[in-house]
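Below is how a single chain appears once it has passed through the pipeline. First comes the sequence as given, then the structure the pipeline wrote out for it. We keep one example in the README because the format questions we get most often are answered faster by looking than by reading.
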Amino acid sequence: MAGADPDASLLHTPLHDAHVALGARMVPFAGWEMPVQYTGIVDEHRQVRNSAGLFDLSHMGEVRVEGPGAGDALAYALVSDPRTLAVGRAQYSLICAEDGGILDDLIVYRVADERFLVVPNASNRELVAAELAARAAGFDATVTDASLDTALIAIQGPRALAILQPLVDRPIDDLRNYAAREARVLDTPALVARTGYTGEDGFELFLPNAAARSVWDALLAAGADGSLRPIGLGARDTLRLEAGMPLYGNELERDVRPAEAGLERVVKLDKPGGFVGRDALVAAAEAGPRHQLVALVLREPGIARHGYPVLGQDDPAGEPIGVVTSGTQSPTLGTAIAIARVPPSHTTPGTMVRVAIRASTVLAEVAPSPFYRRPSAGVTPSR
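Resulting structure:
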């Protein structure tokens, strides 16, 4: 059961003791004490790319929206249109403020005709739950924050299906990307979704807190030959960065509009009934983006980190034209990569810029996104 840490006032997931027993390095994250790594970020990153990794994501939010008006309530609250989802399907979405700024990015699952599950980021869970409740007030729908009663375990990587399937009472090999079905995992009712945040094939399991440890242990036992290992938040971040997936607080912020994060395709401006923030986003579409996100590959030694200034190639001593939102040394590519916010004039692949790293600047090239795409697969932003 999730509860407060008496020493640091941090929340613990139902798998906290398992992480400690496995020797994880624990750190504060979004109000929770979470494992950042077990054996090392690069090692864990490669484990997911080459085989499979197991993630505790129980810090994420789970908000249920139910009732005859649940679809209409969500269509009004979010920029997408969850009413168009078939039962068992999911969509990536955004919740925006009246001025069009992004409050959070999230996943919406249609579990039944009148039952939806919304999964926001841990840092925004309370805000999203409150906004959904307020925006659903005029609809025949109830909003319930079930976050502290729900565990979320993800298994990601090319061997994820083979490891997970024997523990599930229904076939899951036919699940498409962004599909989900209710099933029993180790005889525990769960929602099994083919979603993830790594760029690899994989599944996310929503289940009661009380069942989390038995499912976690059974999965690790099934991969005891080395095919499955626990993975911390550090490798989750490098994996999502290689796959070009945005992170709230980095690529997405309160004053960023969807088109400025490359997410205009998510916004359904013409859906019946309108939605919160529509007028502002229509005006923003007419005006054009103030800035945009680009992928950068560093062409000189150095690692670009969040917050580092981006400068024009020929004006390294001038005013910054942009900022790095995320950056790392890519374990898969073997080079330094980053995502940066720059003017629209600097978004064409091949454009050269400079990144200020401490007292010097290094050359970087705008590159196609994502940096990594698994063989024969597309990449869709997902949390």
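The first strand starts at residue 3 and ends at 4.

See the next section for the split statistics.
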